[in-house]
Amino acid sequence: MRAAAGDLHDDLVRLRRDLHREPELGLDLPRTQEKVLAALEGLPLEITTGTALSSVTAVLRGSSPGPVVLLRGDMDALPLTERSGVPYASQIPGRMHACGHDLHTAMLVGAARLLAERSFTGSVVFMFQPGEEGNGGAKIMIEEGLLDAAGARPVAAYGLHVTSSIMPAGTFVTRRGTLMAAADQMRVTVRGAGGHGSQPHLAKDPIPAASEIVTALQTFATRRFDAFDPVVITVGSINAGTAPNIIPDEAQLGLTIRSFSPAARARVTEGVRELIGGIAAAHGLTAELDHEMGYPVTVNDAAEAEFAAGAVADLYGPERFVWVPNPMTTAEDFSYVLEEVPGAFVFLGACPPDRDPSTAPFNHATTAVFDDAVLPDGSALLAELALRRLATAI
């Protein structure tokens, strides 16, 4: 598998860099979809495209019916202006493939090509997904029938994600159980009554209450939750007032809330509401909360994580695989797939060889750069996982 994937290197690099030059955002990725369809042309695939998003679902049938395995690659970029300096940099200001989704797309195309040349029993579903960066594209694809595309539900699902730093290129990491956090957002408006700064007793000042909420949230996170099932609450924005001598009518806070279990997620949601409402009431004010539930906790099936680790060790040697000890506080919408299907999500180091992984810009940085040399590695692992899993599920 490694040798065959290596033969695809140049084609995968061309595709990845073509995608990188013309990034698209969100759920509507028409040019990206066109490029994926062109790259898959000639393969014996049953292809459908999305209705509410520019997705591509491709089914590869084996020599005889059997189990189904799903492989996923996300395709959307980020609203950033690229400053990486690479010769194939984004040609569209304000858009950049800073999270490596262009690599994921090329890797999945490579996996489809590899598997199309092999005989197996069952089917493989290739999930080319828009809208991972906050738009929940995976959930929409599921609602549009992704998991039934092959006529039977997948027995397993696998996804890869590259990183531009932290780990050396070619290193695979994952963990059993919770891999990434749930990420929710909350907009809070503390409402009072404005007045003159010289007579605060005649007003209802929302700023002290908002400030108290900020500090109380940190105490709440550390004193109401188990240290081994924590939550992370960050107040990322606070806005109030227009002048030093004017008490405003209201103050706004923007929060992100991250948790690592469904139970903690439910408790922190309820607790934050109670805390904010209580502090506002104690000041004679009211608080309006707009809570946006984000991606769920990303949970690897323990057996599938072990299965992925074994495949990496057999393909590349055990030295290329690392068990990560703790969950990551990032979030990922492949979590929606893993809520429905047992599977594993694996990270792959893609830090360029001329950079130090400990100091290189991380994903989402305008200067992030990824090493194209890992493209065949990702394609080979995805294809190998599908073949092995179909064989063991028969």
UniProtKB/TrEMBL annotation:
Highest taxon in the source lineage: Bacteria
Chain ranges of the Peptidase M20 dimerisation domain: 185-276
UniProt-listed Pfam families: M20_dimer, Peptidase_M20
SUPFAM superfamilies membership: Bacterial exopeptidase dimerisation domain, Zn-dependent exopeptidases
CDD domains: M20_Acy1
InterPro entries: Amidohydrolase, Bact_exopeptidase_dim_dom, Peptidase_M20, Peptidase_M20_dimer
Protein name: M20 family metallopeptidase
Protein's organism: Actinoallomurus oryzae
Lineage per the UniProt record: Bacteria, Bacillati, Actinomycetota, Actinomycetes, Streptosporangiales
